[in-house]
């Protein structure tokens, strides 16, 4: 995911046996337990079903306030994502992009 | 007097502190020591241990046996956070009733050094490392903020509804000696507190601390022989990762187990004199009230407006003040509802008694692995 994110591609784990798409990443398919998983390009659409704005963080380097949301991806899983300013209040349709944050983690951004 | 039916007895609390330089082992030792004193038993009388902690690393319960000089024939380590107390009780009852142990000590103990909470969060689970930590949320505040905002929108709950639970619990805590927060809290103070993660403000959020809770499980006959006051365990349930396909957690595993929980106990919801929910955030108390059948799904706000929740109220709830007033001593938080329920049922309340309390329901909820709590449990207890 990190490598794809560096190239701006939104990839998630997909099971080669049953086709299930999953997030967060796992070592086996959450549906059928197969361990044959691959990273595949995923549609960017989703619906933000809940959101919060953080005014406090346990990480000192976090720039506050910060808006995050729970997004039900069209590909199936639910993911936590940063939420852009232009997104209306939840529930709202969003598009997911992926990027690397300052620590090099792949993070999702809903816009 | 049954020789095989197990009971819960000797509930103890090791007083909480915001931070401590002592290890979890220290709190475990204090818990066992106070418990043995309460039971007037020697350490060698304990032949089973059921232990829970987030901060015992690198040890497990196994290492603890040598650390504290315990020789046991039954040992369990329950990594279930807020559900650990219920599950410990459940396992211990079965161990005693099966004859695998005579006297089981169940202990939840955790320390809290100034950086311990962040360390626990950073190492909490693979999912929190991979999928939560990068967002700077890194803690349960954000998870419960999402649940709370969704619940408010979906079911019309207001901040005043959640505030009523928090204010009532604080009232209960005023007379509870080991609560870290024993200053009165008004609804106005609750509403005007600083925001943490919208819609959560300061008094919606539990405060991590150090401390321990524990109790003994033994046969009814043993408790009687030792002259110990005890409560009967009418039924228990546990459930893990229930409803994984729900996009957001608006119900817990209690929904699947409540009918059997009440049927085995032989009581209905109107017989419950005291409800102890797991309360690191008030929204999860509301979900427990609904999912355990005290009101329907989405009826929580109306239920809160109709009832009063202090120990002298129409629906006594979290008699010690709960974690929101006592603090969250790690895994001990999952034991707090149990220890105080046993005290209330045996006429040994430390704070204001719930008058005539005969039957209590205690519920546990634990382990926000990613976006939801995975472990649910509950028990129905009865006084003699």
Number of helices of chain A: 1
Helices of chain B, by number, come to 14
Largest sheet composition of chain A: 5 strands, mixed, barrel
The main sheet of chain B comes to: 9 strands, mixed
Bin the strand percentage of chain B.
15-25%
N-to-C SSE string of chain B, H for helix and E for strand: EHEHEHEHHHHHEEEHEHEHHHHEE
Helix content of chain A: under 10%
Number of DSSP E strands of chain B: 11
Given as residue ranges, the uncertain stretches of chain B (5+ residues, pLDDT < 50) are none
Alpha carbon gap, first and last residue of chain A: 19 Å
- The low-confidence runs of chain A, each spanning 5 or more residues with pLDDT under 50, are none
Structural class of chain A: mainly beta
Task: Describe this protein's structure.
The complex is a heterodimer of chains A (111) and B (384). Chain A has 111 residues and is mainly beta. In chain A, 5% of the residues lie in helices and 45% in strands. Chain A has one helix and eight strands; from the N terminus they run H-E-E-E-E-E-E-E-E. Chain A has one helix at 2-6, and strands spanning 11-15, 21-22, 37-41, 45-54, 66-73, 78-83, 92-100, 106-110. The radius of gyration of chain A is 15 Å and the shape is globular. Helices cover 37% and strands 20% of the residues of chain B. Chain B is built from 14 helices and eleven strands. Chain B has helices at residues 24-39, 61-67, 84-98, 116-122, 126-132, 140-155, 159-173, 187-192, 220-225, 254-265, 282-291, 300-306, 322-326, 333-345; strands at residues 6-17, 48-52, 74-77, 103-110, 195-197, 200-201, 210-219, 230-240, 274-276, 359-368, 373-382. In chain B, 58% of the residues are buried. Chains A and B meet through strand 4, strand 5 and strand 6 of A and helix 4, helix 5, helix 6 and strand 5 of B.
